[in-house]
Amino acid sequence: MWNIPNDVYTILQHYVGELPPYKANTKDSRRMFINEMTIEEQNILLTWLNENKYLIVSDILKGRGQFSAEWVLVIKKTNFLDWVLKPINFVMNHYSNGDIGISNNGNIHLGKITVQRKGGDGGRETAKMLQFKIDPTELFNIA
């Protein structure tokens, strides 16, 4: 879908655990965090992410085709009900704004989006997928 080159694909396979770590003493014996990989591999991944940032953000937030989103609605229930409705292009711009980098714990920042291994599936194969995380309540604080 994103025409991921083989070298980037292999890096991501080590990251999610489809391929085991290629060196000893990693934080997790099932996978590698990005900061445990070589600087060259980190640069390859970050360069590819930088070149494809807007395509990735568009696909994960808006989608493609007939049912692609045009608006984002966030509802917050605390002591009262509050909501915000924003156009998708505004939302995509907000979450893609920022640098691409590696967090201190070895995950990926794609603007304001955190990319990490899904995990938490009790050892099932679906735990070896990428997860894209946003904080939707940020939309309450911007005009």
Given helix and strand content, the structural type is alpha+beta
Q: What's the order of the H and E elements? A: HHEEHEEEE
Instruction: List low-confidence stretches.
Output: none
Q: Give the CA-based shape.
A: globular
* Radius of gyration, taken over Cα atoms and rounded to an integer in Å: 17 Å
Strand sequence of the main sheet, in spatial order? 3-4-5-6
End-to-end distance: 33 Å
Largest sheet: 4 strands, antiparallel
Helix content: 25-40%
Beta strands, count: 6
The fraction of residues assigned to DSSP E strands is 15-25%
Mean pLDDT: 94
* Count of runs of 4 or more consecutive helical residues: 3
Describe the structure.
- This protein is of the alpha+beta class and 143 residues long.
- It is 30% helix and 20% strand.
- The chain is built from three helices and six strands; from the N terminus they run ααββαββββ.
- Helix 1 crosses helix 2 (39-61) and helix 2 (39-61) packs antiparallel against helix 3.
- A hairpin with a 3-residue loop joins strand 1 and strand 2.
- The chain has a four-stranded antiparallel β-sheet with strand order 3-4-5-6, with helices on one face. Strands 1-2 form a two-stranded antiparallel ribbon.
